Amino acid sequence: MTKKTTRRSFIKKTSGTLAAATIATPFINFTAKAQSEKVIRGAMALGQFSSIDPHTANEHTGYSVIAPMFNSLVRTPPGGSSADPAALEGDLAVNWERNSDSTEFTFNLRRFVQWQKGFGEFTADDVAFSINRVKDPKTGSAWSKRFANVNVQVVDRYTVKMSTQKPDPLFLTKVFDWQTGNIACKKAAEQMGDKFSINPVGTGPFELKEYRPGDRVILTPFKDHYRWKNGDLEMTNVDAVEIVLYGDATSRDAAVWGGEAHLMQAATGFKARAALAERSGLNTWKQWPPAPSIVRCNFKIPPLDDIRVRKAIAHAINPQEAAKILAQGTDHILPLTAPYSSDDNFGIYGGLNLSEAVYPYDPEKSGRLLAEAGHSKGIDLGDVYSGPWGIWISVYEILQQQLGQVGIKFKLNPLEAPNFFKLSRGGSNPLPIYMASRFPDANFYLDEFLHSKNAPGQNMGGYSNDKFDSLVDSAWVETDPAARVKMLNDAQMIALEEAAGMPFVGLFAMQIASPKVDMGYPGGDPAETGLARVWNQWHRISEGIRWRG
Amino acid sequence: MLGAVTIVFVVMRFAGGDPTYAILGDHATPEVHEALRETLGLDRPIYQQYFEYITKLFTFNFGDSLVKKVPIGSLISHHIRFTIELAIAGFMIAVLIGIPLGIIAAYKRNTKVDHFIRVVSLIFPSMPPFYVGIVFILLFTLIFPIFPSSGGGNLNDFADRMFRLILPSLSLGLFLSGTLVRITRASMLDTINKDYVTVARSKGLGQIRTILKHVFRNALIPIVTTAGMLLAAVLAGTVMTEMVFGRPGLGKLLVISVNSRDYPVIETILAIYALIIALSNLLVDIIYAYLDPRIRYE
Fold first, then answer.
1. Whole-angstrom distance between the N-terminal and C-terminal Cα of chain A?
2. pLDDT tens digit string along A525-547?
3. Which end of chain B, C or N, has fewer beta carbons within 10 A?
4. Closest chain B C-alpha to A530 CA, distance in angstroms
5. Looking at residues A126-150, what average pLDDT do you find?
6. Residue A531, helix vs strand vs coil
7. How many CA atoms lie within 13 A of A262 on its CB side?
8. Are strands A240-246 and A206-212 parallel, antiparallel or unpaired?
9. Can you tell me whether residue A129 is helix, strand or coil?
């Protein structure tokens, strides 16, 4: 017997169906969109990028957002960066020459390279404009001084010559794929004025579609990108790359484990994340170069000005134990034997390779040194400041525990970045630890963190040694690679002998990626090799990136 | 308002830190930092900066973000939509759950239903929205992958935006609903034994009609007062909720700006919050007069 449809039952059924459809629509939309779109989403934590200006963005991680939009004269091969500065390859420059004393560099530029957004052809004028933009203090680039003594001369439409006052064997690292090397469009910058900072125009494989400050950057493929147009490489099949900022670690992780985002990086929680990745079928790999952490003593704060106390600290710290705790059974944290090491694990150019630590872990010797310095009852260093980042705080907590065993105490104060920088750079931090990777050449690291010219500043311990400074300065201008490496090694030994920077642990960040993403690194798939050589500290998004399947 | 913005200005200037560190990062030399401080006008006396700030605020010319280099007006106008959506949805959920449950609890007082509602009304307010949010994310995006874990959705796609609003608004609304349950129940019980309710019942009026028309209406004043105060709690709750769910609202922008000491952005957002709270208090006063004609403002 069939039930008769009354007006009431019809209205009931219809409204029920409509309500169900209304509720279901977003779910269907969401699922359908997720299945059809080829959008690679990168999940970044707050603070990993804050600006998209090619010359002022300052975060190493933020470089991953800018890099896909730009090219530079020379570059590190994507995913295959080398510690040797000589391994840089041509990008917008087809080739280059330098004079015998490395004071003049002539770049022959690639022809017919197009700017994004229809701004025409790239020429030597754009190179001169970009270098001068970084150099101009009004631009607000952190690196303006790197070009202070560089003169740029446009020889013709496709040739540019740069000269320096002193020999500069590392000059190419000023014009490679980093903020100082990004070549921006002169015409676009002149047209847009101040707005160029938020509407950058480059020649890279991806162009800016939308920038939502504090939320996300959306990039879409630039079909006229020279590597695709020349036929060097097949154009990407990706619809867009979105870099999204997450305010909370749980939602960032959930986005990746749930498949909503495809790329992220982690510096803590290695064991849990590796297990989750395995369960979710995600790929993980180590990122090179590492971020070393050295324990620096503040020479301006007694009793740290006493070498016996500094050596007591050096003997009290146990890098092996610290690495074991932090790595949680993985190989993402390794103990250091030198401030900037060149052994098989670290592979830093000009780094120091020591088979044995200068200050082996020896708490008894540490106690004796303290007693000798008149501190047999121990020392209270007062307030020590850490940056707000999880791994930094963990490193400090282990240091606190290790030093506490020999009677060296301090109160740990994790601060937000602006306060941490202000206090530590101002010389108020008794034990400044700094965990950051730099261009993998020891010259950069030693200069920034231990050279007296950077105190006050990044040389937060105020270390000053004329011989050390002289060796680091000489290495900058030394054209013989072997002599350069020796200078850098000797400088490190001086810093070690004075216990100015005690090696602690090195962090190899964990890169996590969905199997749907093919990074397209010419050197091989990091999911298989377990290592990506991307010195910019996040995933390197380049012209080779593709969506699998 | 002036008091609130002045306090914000003073607190931020004495909080320590320096926006040039957010702009230049850890690479620049002290001289470069100093030059930028000068360019941004941060080297000028505090009183000069204060008067400039007040002038800009009251002429609605907020200037540019120090760090993001975009006009603050456009930054706010983009982010505020996500916050308003979340605040309204969270508030509506709190009201739609809190008031009916409070009425039921009062109506079924001292029964199992009442006890159950009272226990539930204690659970959610005991858990801050960010905690509930994290539980929801783990539950509904990983274990049962129904909802997206984060984001505010596409501004041009209403369905997408509403879909992404469900979990954040629930975690915010549930947190606030407990207070409304308890205040509604208490206020209802206070009114339920009044003479006019007995009169209504003796006239043969049905239970539901008596409860809704005579008890609830007269119990509304404390409920509205509480709901008005909850608006401030809603705004505070949006900050953490937006952080957890990655919603690009004013709360998330505020946290980012505090971390980078982007003074003009922080000050403008907090001035907007102060204005919203002042307006909501005004609205509550107006509703009082409507609900209880004995209340009149000269």
1. 52
2. 999 999 898 876 789 999 999 99
3. C
4. 26
5. 88
6. strand
7. 22
8. unpaired
9. helix
Is residue A142 within 8 Å of residue A178, measured between CB atoms?
no
pLDDT for residue A515 is more than 80: yes
Nearest-CA distance A393 → chain B (Å): 17
Burial of A540 (0-12, 13-18, 19+ CB in 10 A): buried
- State the ipTM, two decimals: 0.78
Residue type, A460: M
Cis peptide before B128, with omega less than 30 degrees from 0? Answer: no
Tokens of B7: 């306090």
Cβ contact B159–A59 (<8 Å): no
CA distance A57 to chain B (A): 7
CB A85, CB A74: distance < 8 Å:
no
Mean pLDDT of chain A: 90
Query: What pLDDT sits at residue A34?
Result: 56
Instruction: For an interface test with A, give the residue of B12, B20, B21 to mutate (most A CBs within 10 A).
Output: B21
pLDDT tens for each residue of A111-120? 999 999 999 9
The type of residue at B72 is I
Whether residues B163 and A27 touch (CB distance < 8 A) is answered with yes
pTM of the model: 0.85
Contacts with A198 from chain B: Cβ below 8 Å: 68-70
A511 backbone φψ class: left, alpha, beta (φ>0; ψ -120 to 50): beta
Coil, helix or strand at residue B201: helix
Instruction: Output the DSSP codes for A249-276.
Output: HHHHHHHHHTTS--EEEESS-HHHHHHH
Each residue's pLDDT tens digit, A495-506? 999 999 999 999
